[in-house]
Amino acid sequence: MSSPPAGGDASEAPSHAYSLVSATYQNKEYPDGTLRVNEAGNEVELSQWTGKKRRAETVVARFHLEPNADVLVDGALLRVSELSVTLESPSAAGEVADLLRRPAREIEVARLVSEAEASVSGFLEAREEALSLLSRIKVDPRGALFVVDSTTTATDTEPLDAFYSTYSARLAESLEKMKSSLAGGEKSLGSGATDRLYAIAYTVGAVQNALFEGDSDMVQELDALHELGIATTAQELGMERPTARLMLRAHPALVALATSRPQSS
Amino acid sequence: MPRCPNGHEQRLGLKCLTCGAALSYRDSMEELRDLPKVEPNYGKVEVITVGYPRLSLKADYVGEIRAGPADLKSSTAFEVASIRGGSWLDFSKKYLQELRRWMTLVGIGKSTDRFLVVDTTDPLSVLALSALPKLEHTAVIAVVADQDSTPVEQNTSYVALSLALGKGFPIIALSETFEGEMLYFTEDRGFTTDADALSRLMECLLGAADDLMDLLERDLKLGIKMHCLSAIMAGSKTVYGIATNAFMAQSYDLSMGAKPDEYQTVHSLVFSRGESKGEFEKGFGVFRNRKFKGALNAELRFHETASPLYDLVTIYGMRTDTSLQDIAPGYQAIVGSMPELSVEGAS
């Protein structure tokens, strides 16, 4: 059985220790010993009991596991890299396998989260651009609409109408794209992380609205961002292009949320 | 707004503050699809200059239409490349659609009042007046060809003025000779001439834009579209004595020559210290009775300033055909050899 995470030899980080029935490493057999796997699941240490009374523990192997390493489980037998171990039970072997698969899973989750975030960012950044132009239009309509004209295709319509028409279409398209992307990724990411992405998208949208309306303190928005794991200040939100910064800061909490969900297989 | 499974709505947050259940944002995303409506502020006065790249004007918007080395458009300038040997017709053919689009883009017509300051001897004047939509509260301050101008200039000026009149814009006309001889005093830079003098005159007119447009539109209702003006800049009691003298003196230097019986209305704009208001009102009364007794309308508008020196601008409503008559021979001479350069060709 595993011991709770504790400081071990494999690394400075906490590790999980498992008693072994037997082990084979680089074709050499070890009758018993301990397997330690760090919390991140990428450092493995094999040690055996030595000495007359077999009370001294000697490390016989310590290696870094690549995230894409194959981890195979067959009952209590676990194979990874050049190591083959028989643990005390199939559940212990499953637990170790889960730990060792964590880096690969995290990479995959991070990739999926990044994909989902990209679709959310796509929508929010399109909205940020539109609101930023609208802010300019409010104070300098001539200068702003002259610039906007290069991005619109209408020639005979009122510039402001053309702006609304073009940017409303763009927003609708990117919102649909975002919803479709989140729906597609929900099975892999889980509904918790997907719900969180929707909450982030809406909250960042609320920040954009507050900035557009000139609300300088944004107390509610800051509280909501904090609750979502996004630390920032009103001053920072007032700086150029806040959306990209907020999405960047949302990433770690999202990955953690998506990684921590129970795995289906 | 996001809501919890129990139907409680909440602005932001992860948990419902009423029942503690998780909030769902999925159905709320549609709220972010619509962009807020804005009411852009285009300001009160917009000015478009044609053929005057060096004018220094103060208004909510100043846009320039001018010739330059290459086509170049910005929110404040529509610059066209010179056309070698080109007449107003060549510029109009090449740039009319583009200029109309530019005017729409930069919101010409969105401010309350508009002034087109135009050198009507410039081929771009016809282009500008063709492109400018028929808009209310729009006046043209035009430098026009006179008897000293070339027939080509007279033709261009005649066509431009005809276009302006055809669109119902009131015009304040300054002859080319008057414009060339303008000399005004400014407190900060001393005497000014050319574009600086025109800028100084425009400073006065735009400073009273509301009153000026009101007076021009009153005249328009009387059927008076064409005006000339006279002005004293930085006048003082030391130089002119009583206000009546100032009114009388300035009326001898008119921006367009016309016989006294051709003046239909007379209006003065005075910019002076508040305590001199009564004197100017009295002086204007005497001036009107002496020189314009038969005027259909005569008004004085006083604007209080802090300066010890005063500015006085008087505009005179004229019969429309007066200014066109002087340049008609040159216009006809050109149309005789190039019929396409007629007013009809620009319409």
Segments of chain B where pLDDT lies below 50 for 5+ residues? Answer: none
**How many strands, what sense, and barrel or not for the largest sheet of chain B?**
11 strands, mixed
C-alpha Rg of chain B (nearest Å): 26 Å
Mean pLDDT of chain B: 93
Shape of chain A: elongated
| Computed CA radius of gyration of chain A, to the nearest angstrom | 27 Å
**Strand segment count of chain B:** 13
The fraction of residues in strands of chain B falls at 15-25%
End-to-end CA span of chain A: 21 Å
Mean pLDDT across every amino acid position of chain A: 87
Low-confidence stretches of chain A: 5-11
Global structural class of chain B:
alpha/beta
Main sheet makeup of chain A: 9 strands, antiparallel
The SSE order of chain A reads EEEEEEEEEHHHHHHHH
Helix-strand category of chain A: alpha+beta
Please tally the helical runs of chain A, counting DSSP H or I stretches of 4 or more residues: 8
| Ends apart, CA distance between termini of chain B | 56 Å
Sheet with most strands: strand arrangement of chain B: 3-4-2-1-5-6-7-10-13-11-12
Gross morphology of chain B is: globular
List the helices and strands and how they pair.
The complex is a heterodimer of chains A (265) and B (347).
Chain A: E1 2-7, E2 14-25, E3 28-30, E4 33-38, E5 43-50, E6 56-64, E7 71-74, E8 77-80, E9 83-87, H1 90-100, H2 102-139, H3 141-149, H4 159-189, H5 191-213, H6 219-227, H7 234-237, H8 242-260
Chain B: E1 45-50, E2 61-68, E3 72-73, E4 77-81, H1 88-105, E5 113-119, H2 123-131, E6 138-144, H3 151-166, E7 171-175, H4 176-181, E8 183-186, E9 190-193, H5 194-207, H6 209-221, E10 226-235, H7 237-240, H8 243-250, E11 263-272, H9 277-291, E12 297-304, E13 310-318, H10 321-337, H11 343-346
Parallel strand pairs in B: 1-2, 1-5, 2-4, 5-6, 6-7, 7-10, 11-12
Antiparallel strand pairs in B: 3-4, 8-9, 10-13, 11-13
